[in-house]
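SAMPLE LOG
Freezer: B-3
Tube label: C17
Construct: single chain, 294 aa
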Amino acid sequence: MIVCLSGVPKSMIKSLESECGYAVYVPQRKLFPDGEQYLRIEFRSISDNVVVTQSLYPEQDRKIVELYLALEALQGLDIHVDTVVLPYVAYTRQDKRFLFGEPISTKALYNALKIFGVTKIVTVDVHSSRPFNDMGYTHIDLLPHSYMISRSGLEIDMVLAPDKGALHRALDVAKQLGVEYDYLDKYRDRITGEITIDTKTLDVAGRDIAIVDDIISTGKTLAKATEALYRADASNVYAVVSHAFISRETIDILSKAGLKSLVIANTIELSIDLPSWIKVIDITPIICRALKSG
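STRUCTURE (predicted):
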């Protein structure tokens, strides 16, 4: 059985049942007048294999509290939970102490999962695996880009990371799809914060290019990358992104840049209507494969 909390997108809950064959349970929940959360798990008889899943956006703080409430409720029912699935993981940017006195936010938020017997954490394209490994968890991080490209029907000649730090995503796609890969040079002005994208000496002329990344929000950096590739005579530029925080402004920015298609995963519930050139791919099957493979 999979216990799905309020952050899990509806499309993912449906697929867990219909595509993966899991029994799904959604706890009863409400808010008290002061804003505190109430959660109740009502079943009494269940198999030993219970997985809890929660996508931690929006209202990250509230979603994290709900996750802990659910784990404690299950522990109170003498139900052991070994595995937690977090399709989107909040508070992972601060994976080390950059400045004196800073917290490692990943450690602060997720180390306490051990109290409830959790030993394995499954994530989708998390910022860094290092903190989870350092805390002693078995950590499975899924890179969904090649699956998303295959399901979307995109035909590409080359895959690019938006910067050198994201090259591992492009490499993963290149290996699985048998295409060339590289990265763009990204520079940030330390005073103005302005970002500049350079295609270096990449040979992209006449090619269909897919940019792969973990997160999109404003879309400004992706728009600049798209424009730079078109200036270098790329035929078509696509983007394949794991986690999408999309607004009307994002759509407008990317449309003006000429992005041919944006392919996003269903790790986050979106509340706006999307144009036809933005495709949402259900990545639940790759999560299920990871769970069933042990």
